[in-house]
Structures are given as structure tokens and as C-alpha cells.
Amino acid sequence: MGCFTSKRMVEVWLPLLSILGVSLAALAQEDPQGFRTIDCGIPDGQSYVDKDIKLTYISDWQFVESGKTFVIPKDNVKDKNLGQRYLTLRSFPTGTRNCYTIKDLAPGEKYLIRASFLYGNYDGNYDANSPLAFDLYLDYNLWQTMRIYSDYISYRAEAVTIIPSGILWVCLVNTGKGIPFINALEVRQLKSSMYPAVNASVSLVSQDRCYNLGADQRMRYPDDPYDRIWWPLSDPKWTKTSTSLDIAGDAGGLFEIPSAVLRTAVIPSDAVSSRIDFLMAVNGDKENFVALYFAEFNETQSRTFDVFLNDQILYKNYTPPRLRLDYVYSTASVNMVDNYTVSLIKALNSSLPPILNAMEVYKVMRVYDLPTSNQDVDGIMGIKEQYKVKRNWMGDPCAPQSPVWDGLNCTYTTSDYARIVTL
Prior knowledge:
By secondary structure, the chain is mainly beta. It is 5% helix and 38% strand. Mean pLDDT is 87; it is low at 9-28.
């Protein structure tokens, strides 16, 4: 079974008035510990409760030192069901690197980080023939190149990562292809046992690749206590199936997929079909992580199938447990060239065809640059605060190596961290 294993083996609008100054935070229950929910662009000190997820979005002013804020013209937002966080943004017309700094996170713990983007032609400069592009960094690592091909489609970048020092930097880097901008930034603490592929040198990056098979609509918090976004996915070759019964999860386990996600699934549409095939392009992302989630609904008949990835057997004679979460997942990155095909093929002795409830696909982000030593970070931050330095000093001082902070020289002679040598 190679590098795979299974569990058993181991927003209609809110009134624009609320954006411009009326706080709705008093209506909210206390947000979960380890959550930071930031709307980029609303006035300093303002907040509101999202009507769908019931979490409180706060202003980004305490997390960033640069940029200009804008309200997207209402007529430029084509999808009226987008959340309020998409109605404002912060752009960064000056400086190569501009960063958000989020402090007081749990050192060494895992977090889901999500950044959201909607251009909305806020500046009147949208050019369909020249797509906007800029780099997004998670701490000192290139997270994703954001390519904005449309002025009315929303985009997201998501990552599961470990925060080594308890301070998170999210940086937008101007690469000469337009002014970087951001609409929202969300931070969700996960349990340390979740997503075992994530460690100090590996993060997982996703973009719209959490799929809820058989569902009719998107699902996130509070149905998912970690606020993962589960997107519905359908295919003419699949038939939806569901149950009203609760599905037992794996509390304290590796993925903790919510029961609401597992209550729907797909099976082959053709009564005589013996397989489910799922094809996806990897867009040049060579290393990927795949997790497949299963739960059986049928009480009387047996279901057994083989799990393949690009014709490689991952699990033979797999039988999902009734009304209980189980999974098959990669314990090491899967190297792919252009695309992958996940295939579930009915076993000869099975009474029922294959079933698939949900799946996640992530690309692997490896840590290559060295972070600045915590001692030097504390020292230079103290200098910045003491002397009210107004230079573009944001993010990790020495990483990535281009660009480092203005006026600093760093050395990378150790194997663990970079050091500031002159100022």
C-alpha cells in the first residue's frame, strides 16, 4: 500500500452601514479559542458578526502598518451571496513587501490559515488582457502566487502549517504585475494530532480542494468546528446518496471530519457500473497529499472495493465501516506530473458499488529559507518599537533572503536560522 494508510491501520449582503461604523459584535457568542477573524479594510475599531458563520470579523488595523483601504462599489460585486468581508479590501501601492503580523498564537501548534481576495475593480484599473499577479508569503515561505483573472470572482489561498514562534507573518509581495491587495485573513487553530503530514519543514497548501461529495451547498463553521470550507462536487456519472443519521467521527484523531459532511456521499450512477473515477489537474504542483473519507449507510449489504491512484493500488479490499468515519490517506507526498486519477473499483465479492463521502487534496509546501533567530527578532523588534522606525520593517527580518528588511545585513551560515550582523 506504499505511502498510503487508513485510520484502522494506525452571505445575501449585510447592510453597508455595518461596514462603515455600526458594530454588530454585541450579537455574537464568544469565538472559539485560537481563532482570528480579520476583515481587511473596515475602519479601525469596528467589527461585525457574519450572518452565516456567526463569527466576529474585526478590523485589520492592529495587524498591519501600511496600505490603503477601499470599499468595493456595490455594483461591482456580481455575486450578492458573498460575505461582507469581500466588500472592503486593503491594497499596498508602495513597498515591495507588506506584511500582517498576528501575535499571541500557540508556539509549535498547527493552524489553518486562509486569505481571501475579490478585486471588484475597486480602483477602476481592471484590465482583462493583463491579469493581476502578486506573491503571497506565509512567514518566510512562498505560499502561493495569486493570479487574479477576473474582477468579480473571489479567490482564496489556504494552508495548514505549524507556527514555530507564536507569531505569524502573512506578506504580500509586489512582483511588478499589479498592486497587491487582500480582503480577509482567517486563522484557525487545529489540534496537534490533525494532518500528520504537517511538520516543522512541511506545510500543506489548498485552494478549493476540500470536497463534500453528494452535498448541494458549501459547508463551513459551525458545522465544521475548525472552519474548513467544504465545497459540493457532482458529476453526471455519480448518484448522490445520504443519511439522516449521525456519523461517528474520530474526535482526537487525524482529521475530525464533521458528521454533517459525512452524511452525504456519491455512488456510480449506472446500476451496473463498478467504479468511481475522480480526475484533477495538479497545475504543476508536483508533490501532493490526498485524503479520502468514507462512511457506510447501508445496513444489510456489503460493500468492498479497491482504491487506486493513477493505477497504483493504495488499498485493496477496502470496506467502509457503517455510520463511522474512516479514511485512506497519504503518509508521504505523492509525486504527480500533470494530473491524478483516484479510482474506486468494486471488488468481485461485493454486493454494492464503491462509495465516497469526502476528500481533500493539498499540495506540499516545503520550508527552504532559514528564519531569523528568535533572539535577533526580539532585539530588532525592540529597536523598531523604541525608535518608532517607519521603514518597511515587516515580516521576518532576514527571510526570505530577497527582500530582507531595509538597512539590514544577514548571514545564513548556520543550519537552523539566520542572524542579523549589521544595521
